[in-house]
Design brief:
The structure is a single chain. This protein is an all-alpha fold. α6 packs across α7.
Length: 136
Amino acid sequence: MTIDRTTALRAGTAALENGDALTARRYFESILGAGVGDAQTSILLAIACQKLGDMPALHRAIDQALAFDPRNLHALLMKGDRLAATGNARAAAQFYGAAVTLASQVQNLPPVLVDYVRRAAESRDRIHAHIEQHLR
């Protein structure tokens, strides 16, 4: 199946911005299914799945983004959030820590990620404090 990746990506992003997560998901899945996806496409798919409440698909899309790019800041942050939401605080702290470390090496971090990284650092610190408290 051939697909115009750029057109499908634009259409999927527009659908996501217009609140049509199902249509967005279909576009992003078609890109990935055609073998022309990347970490960003997987992240957009994850966001669409999150909006649809499909947590297993969200988790798979985040893992796929990390398979494409293990140092993708947005994917690391999303993975930390998913792990925290499922009660795996220690693993979440590891992903948050990796994201915070990576973010410290990035110049001109997009504003939307600055707040996300700050929140991740706070979450990581809370988790570590909680673990330390239980070790005393």
